[in-house]
Design brief:
This protein starts with 9 loop residues before the first strand and ends with a strand. The radius of gyration is 26 Å and the shape is elongated. The longest helix is centred in the middle third of the chain and has 21 residues. A hairpin with a 7-residue loop joins strand 6 and strand 7. The chain is 28% helix and 24% strand. It has 489 residues and is an alpha+beta fold. Helix 1 packs across helix 2.
Length: 489
């Protein structure tokens, strides 16, 4: 009784929502050992007929049933896989369909796409489409996705009422990196970061911006060139994660051994470090500035004696939107980030000139327990500094620095490796020593470690916004700015 799937494979439906007013939403999936029933076949045939009538270029109803409603390939979730079809059932009849599939969100975060969304013509006008989309978003959130994307020709107004906004085109092709575990991905990122450092040392030509993976072209038989792409954020932020000193020192040691960070350096002595463990948070969407503020605030709350009496911080994203600073977390003006730090996060934060802030200034601030947030252009993978005129602008938290003093160092930190020594009082005078900034960013837990001069040069050429993502009317005010945060206000 199965339908074109082989003798050992069956169809099964799972009810994910049921209400007297709207009917029920069921998820269609394959299952081994459960016999199909005629009612399921009728629902599938009805949904396939709706799809073929609405989008005839996709083929016959039979083809839709075989390639859209039932699919072998996909991303596994709790015993079933995406892409997955969801049917809206009212009075035992299928009146609507939507499909959830994984897609690639280029800003950061995990995303799914809602495709083949349709309500039967004689059932429209009853808010069934709204209910179907709401439940589809709930399912996407349950599966761990942070955004839902879709495209449409004629229903832009409908989706805008559901809080979707027009965005850039994204790829529905599953990235191979999504198959890796977190530990595997972190290791691969570290390896690629090391390679990028060597490449950038050879030529800065690699630093110019290139087309984002998020802008790759979707096949025309899936989305037409005249379709309008839209998206909706489902999750504002992810929880912060504590970072140990040992983990930081491991990355510092890896960075300076073998001269990968400082190619051409003639000094072979030990490196002096000053570093502050700060909780790490992965960003969702283009919200690196907001994530940087959260990391800094979490740190100062953790070390504050009065942390228990602090009120809960309001939603940073909501406050940024209410003030007109941002649409989806992006902050193009450093003065706006200072306002959020002061008025929302309750931080003692001031704006300073990057070019007038020396490595010695940063060292003394770090020794006092202060932190910096700096904007700079970053390579898409490693987040090392580059020069892309602001089109790859990113915020990072300066949690430490490394330098090699002119005098010989006889004692090193043997516990953490023979190339490092913690900063002592007699190291405070740096005397023009070569300095590396240690930047914690919100794309991955791998630090961005590079010369102070490289971060400064990157900051000094922040001139323009990536118009392909944010529009050409947006002004960038990040050049020669950095934020000094001295703690809770």
């Amino acid at each position: 009784m199965n339908t074109a799937m082989g003798p050992a494979s069956y169809l099964q439906v799972h009810v994910i929502a049921d209400s007297e007013e709207y009917g029920k939403i069921v998820r269609v999936q394959r299952s081994g050992g459960v016999e199909d029933v005629s009612q399921i076949k009728e629902w599938l045939a009805s949904a396939a007929g709706m799809l073929a009538a609405e989008w005839p270029r996709g083929g016959s109803a039979e083809k839709y049933e075989e390639t859209v409603l039932v699919n072998d390939d996909g991303v596994q979730h709790d015993g079933y896989a995406l892409p997955c079809s969801y049917l809206h059932i009212v009075n035992d009849s299928c009146v609507g369909h939507a499909r959830l599939t994984e897609c690639f969100e280029g800003f950061g975060g995990s995303a799914a796409a809602a495709t083949y969304v349709i309500v039967q013509k004689n059932s429209r006008g009853k808010k069934l489409g709204t209910k179907l989309m709401t439940l589809l978003e709930t399912e996407a959130r349950r599966l761990g996705y942070h955004y839902v994307y879709l495209w449409t020709k004629t229903a832009v107004g409908f989706y805008e009422k559901l809080a979707y906004s027009i965005c850039e085109r994204v790829s529905l092709h599953r990235p191979c990196l999504k198959m890796l575990k977190e530990t595997q991905l972190t290791g691969l990122e570290a390896m690629l970061a090391s390679r990028m450092k060597r490449i950038s040392a050879q030529s800065d030509k690699q630093a110019t911006s290139s087309p984002s993976p998020g802008a790759s072209k979707v096949p025309e038989d899936v989305a037409g060139a005249d379709d309008v792409w839209m998206r909706k954020r489902l999750v504002e932020e992810l929880p912060s994660r504590a970072v140990s000193l040992d983990a930081l020192l491991h990355q510092l040691r890896s960075a300076v051994e073998g001269g990968a960070v400082v190619p051409g350096s003639t000094s072979s002595g030990a490196w002096v470090y000053q570093v502050v463990p700060v909780p790490w948070q992965r960003q969702i969407g283009p919200s690196c500035g907001l994530a940087a503020l959260r990391m800094v605030r979490d740190h100062f709350v953790a070390v504050s004696d009065a942390a228990e009496g602090l009120p809960q911080m309001p939603s940073l994203l909501h406050e940024a939107r209410e003030r007109g600073f941002s649409k989806d977390g992006e902050i193009f003006d450093a003065t706006n980030l200072v306002s959020l730090a002061d008025q929302v996060c309750g931080l003692d934060c001031k704006l300073y000139s990057f070019s007038q802030t020396t490595p010695q200034d940063m060292l003394e601030s770090l020794r006092r327990g202060d932190l910096y947030i700096i904007p700079y252009d970053s390579h898409s993978g490693s987040k090392q500094p580059c020069t892309a005129q602001g089109r790859s602008a990113h915020y990072g938290v300066v949690i430490g620095l490394l330098f090699q003093p002119s005098q010989s160092i006889t004692h090193v930190d043997d516990e953490h490796g023979g190339c490092l020594r913690p900063c002592a009082s007699d190291d405070v005078a740096m005397d023009g020593a070569e300095t590396l900034l240690v930047i914690q960013h919100s794309v991955s837990s791998n630090l961005a470690i590079a010369k102070y001069d490289a971060f400064l040069a990157s900051n000094q050429q922040l001139e323009m916004v990536d118009a392909s993502r944010f529009g050409g009317h947006v002004q960038l005010n990040l050049k020669d700015h950095l934020l000094l945060i001295k703690g809770l206000a």
